[in-house]
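Table 4 source record.
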Amino acid sequence: MDYSSHDISHYNETNNSAMQGKQNKTKKISCKNHRVNMAILGDNLISLDLLNKYYAHQKEALDIDMIYIDPPYNVGVNYGYNNTWKGESRKFFGCDWIGSHGSFLDFMEPRLKIGHHLLAEHGVMFVSICDKEYPYLKIVMDKIFDAKNNLGTIIWNKTGGSASYHLNTVHEYILVYAKNIEKAPSLQKYKKGSQQIIQKANEIKKSGLNYIKAQSIFKEWIHNQKKKLYISPGEAEYKYLHPETFRPFRVTASCAQDRSESRCHLKLRHPVTAKACLTPSKGWKWSKATLLEMYKHTKYYIGDGFVLAGKICYGKDENSVPGKIKYLDEDLSHKLPTIINLSPPKNKDLPPNVIFSTPKPVALIKELIRSLPNKNISVLDYFAGSGTTAQAVYELNKEDNGNRSWILIEEVKNTFQKVLLKRLEHIDPSSDYRIYEFHADTSALMNKI
């Protein structure tokens, strides 16, 4: 679709301003990045195109960093909108689609195309879907985004599910696509207990305790946190404190796994005894050049049963094999896994007396948003439902001092007024956002996409 020449004369607006709409409420905007949080009531096709036309004439482009949508799953349940699209079989990208699948894709295709257009070049889109429509929707998204930009599929294991005659379905899918895979960020999962460990180390440092006492308290705390399942076994390995800085660290193995004759067997001298340390039986896992770089030091630190020098951790003397120091603050995340385990929230995330049948967990959406390392992103959700995405953005900003912004679009008036807006007020009555209502016929727009 050529948005630059798109005719918007079919909109039921009072003038040519794309953002005129019906503005119900305006709050003072104080976003550092000048982006405006928006809650929009209206058909998402019309609303998205209006936003696009408006920002085309602004100094700052709309370029969306992340889109998350949770569209209707085409399962025949009425949540206030048509959740089953019925129609004849039709050709779609050269394939024959059976009945409602084709109609569902008719519904999704233009909305995915607009989403793709609005994404920044580095942007990422997440789409929740059930197993019934997953294979069909993936083919459509491969076509719109290009299959090479498919980052993968996340399985949300929600532990409780819906039982059919044969199987109990306990999962849903989240399709993940980049606008341009070459420019997309690496999606990360931040280790849940890592910040707690770092905070504890800082508390101990500020207490003024001597190092030996501090190390003892820290190890005991790590042990208890692991026992209570507050931190993972991997995080519990960061049980040592640097003698001077109190940075938590772990010691990684140094032994090569392949044949010893192909490996470096350089002997390292202990910083205190000046005697040659034991070497790994199969040689070092690093090259000689890397090992010598790690060995460089002008000072050493004596800890509780170990000695640190350069990037190497030695035993108290030369009679043990040295290992590599790995600091926790340099290892706070890893690649986002393709399985996320979270129980459905039902209505626990919603304000009192506010009911919504199918809310996604705030924790799930936070996990997806947090996977983008930039804390200053714009997030668009044009199947907003109960407003989970706005709450996820708000909570993340509060937790990590981020400056993310959101745009929510919901077409069901009852849901918008009695659920979404009430939730926004409950999250933080003083938060900044604007409310718009758009009315227009989508048929003309769909023919142009």
